[in-house]
Design a protein that fits this description.
Radius of gyration: 25 Å
Number of strands: 11
Order of helices and strands: HEEHEEEHEEHEEEEHHHHHH
Strand content: 15-25%
Distance between the termini: 19 Å
């Protein structure tokens, strides 16, 4: 039930972020003299539609996978008044990148709110202003429970917060692990909280840790949060910029692992081929598509609480912005890149040529999505 709820919640959030993205395109288009013919939530077939006073057809569609905006004369070669193609290069740039900017600003806004209420600290050098920052640590939390472990038999669950262990407080995850080692083979009392309610249980720890699961059979973590007041907007914006750089670095590493892995696969050296396979495995494990996001990440964040859910929403919004700015045909950055290349080359971008380029890009993108989705399903049910 939690998995289904998490998928539904994640789907709603993803649709809202995509709709906000498309709204950015629509607003920029109208402000630059381009006619917006339709603004749709979801994808056809159409379920309901209404013509708004501003002349835009607003539609609700049956496939809840995002949204779209339809502009008049969307091809670069279109030339009638109100056509997207008739806009200047600078106007097209603003229209194409407006969705990216909206998603980036949504991320910055959400991180600003969290900077007031408690922004998770996930980067070693995460930005803050010392004069206006309070760093708080949450109680040690159970993140993983091994099957048939002492923790499972004691009734502990993922998300439980450990307050006392063997009569002593547990200030850090490291000290928690040390305490389990000191008390190996013994029965200990564990006081923990779940959903704000305190419970007491006991567990007989393992005397050995040969399988690496720990004497109690749990994995634990401890969240740190940054709290700011007047500097929250600055923290939100700068942190968004930090995550942007980290995401771009991650994409660079992903591409490097893929290219290295594919090239080295042809090496006659067995050790080199094994390294190549390791690079490909690393790349595969670092990629998640819609199924991966909806099926694992959102349910986990939903269990962790509203702060983690808002934080994840901000990161997904930022990721949408970054992915759409990349020069990949069929995405916003790709459309801008193709337009810019033909403008610099001083060659006309005909409707047929543009459709061919974007069509090939779209097919490649869909193929990648299918591959990633198959991998996601394997991870989810494997």
């Amino acid at each position: 039930m939690e998995l289904i709820f998490g998928i539904i919640l994640g789907l709603i959030i993803l649709v809202l972020l995509v709709v906000v993205h498309e709204l950015g395109h629509a607003i920029a288009a109208r402000r630059n003299g381009v006619v917006v013919e339709e603004f749709g939530i979801g994808f056809p077939p159409r379920a309901w539609a209404k013509k708004l006073k501003n002349g835009v057809l607003f539609s609700l569609n049956w496939l809840p996978l995002g949204g779209f905006v339809k502009l008049q004369g969307e091809h670069d070669a279109a030339s009638k008044k109100g056509d997207y193609g008739a806009a200047t290069f600078w106007q097209k740039t603003k229209i194409l990148l407006a969705g990216v900017m909206i998603n980036w600003l949504v991320a910055a806004g959400l991180l600003t709110i969290l900077a007031w209420t408690g922004l998770p600290k996930v980067l070693p050098d995460q930005f803050s202003i010392p004069a206006d920052t309070a760093l708080t640590k949450k109680p040690v939390e159970v993140t993983v429970i091994a099957e048939n472990s002492p923790a499972a038999e004691a009734g502990l669950e993922v998300g439980d917060q450990i307050i006392r262990f063997d009569g002593e407080p547990v200030p850090t995850s490291t000290e928690f692990a040390e305490k389990t080692a000191v008390n190996k083979g013994e029965e200990v009392e564990i006081i923990y909280t779940r959903d704000g309610v305190e419970y007491t249980t006991s567990a007989t720890l393992r005397s050995e840790n040969n399988n690496g699961e720990g004497y109690l059979g749990v994995g634990s973590g401890q969240r740190e949060e940054i709290h700011a007041t007047w500097s929250a907007p600055v923290v939100g914006v700068v942190t968004t910029a930090q995550f942007t750089l980290v995401t771009l670095q991650g994409l660079g590493d992903l591409v490097a692992n893929l290219v290295t892995g594919v090239v080295l696969q042809f090496s006659p050296d067995q050790a080199v081929r094994e390294t190549a396979q390791a690079n490909l495995n690393t790349a595969g494990n670092s990629v998640a598509g819609p199924i991966g996001i909806l099926g694992t990440i959102f349910p986990a964040a939903e269990q962790a609480g509203i702060t983690q859910l808002v934080f994840l929403t901000a990161i997904i919004s930022l990721t949408l912005a970054i992915m759409n700015v990349l020069p990949i045909p069929a995405l916003d950055g790709g459309r801008w890149f193709v337009t810019a290349v033909f403008k610099l080359a001083k060659k006309p971008l005909t409707k047929e040529r543009e459709e061919r380029i974007q069509g090939i890009g779209f097919m490649i993108l869909m193929a990648l999505i299918v591959v990633v989705t198959v991998v996601d399903v394997g991870k989810l049910f494997g």
